[in-house]
Amino acid sequence: METTIAPNHDLFHEVLALSPLDPSPSEAQGMLCGLMCGGAPDPLTTWLTQLLPANTTTATPIAHYHAALFPLAQTLRDALTDTELRFELGLPNDDHSLQERATALYDWVRGFLFAVGILGVAERDLPEQMREILRDFTELTRIDLDALDDDEENELALADVIEFVRVAALLIYDECAPPRLEPVTQP
Q1: Spatial separation of the C-alpha atoms in residues 77 and 46, rounded to whole Å
Q2: d(CA 2, CA 82)
Q3: Is CATH 1.20.120.740 the classification given to domain 9-176?
Q4: For a 10 Å CB count at each end of the chain, is N or C smaller?
Q5: Which candidate, 108, 93, 113, 99, places its Cα nearest to that of 145?
Q6: C-alpha to C-alpha distance for 37 and 77, rounded to whole angstroms
Q7: Backbone phi, then psi, for 25, in 5-degree steps?
Q8: pLDDT tens, position by position, 30-49
Q9: Does residue 185 register a pLDDT over 70?
Q10: Domain coordinates of the chain in residue numbers?
């Protein structure tokens, strides 16, 4: 399943292949988005540190990945702040099966929640609407993906859920991130 979300597609997949977390591309983008929405001071470095912890065997220093993948973080940040609301989740297109797209959405939401968790964002410190969104995201990770039939009703339902997650991420970013986030900085 191919999902293009990084300006340097090959390097992005190299990082994912080296990561002991073994995230899908959608999960990795959800993680980075969650770090941005959750207020990580340097979301790209935090993201790379999670994907490639110190004990990961790689001849390439994390600083190289940081510099090379900086455009990914900047593109994502720009999309989250775009007044035209053009932010899109890093999911496969409609040429892929319903199962693949639903699994990618599941991965994206899991990545987002993982990031919020590693930031230690306390639910009690969030406005009620944000707490409700995070609870909804958690419920999405409980969906039985094996029970999905590839039919029109499920296609429409998936489109609705994708739009909900997309708008919810924008809302969380708008509500929670800007006052706490530093601009993405190039090393």
Answers
A1: 15
A2: 25
A3: yes
A4: C
A5: 99
A6: 9
A7: -55, -40
A8: 999 999 998 888 898 899 88
A9: no
A10: 9-176
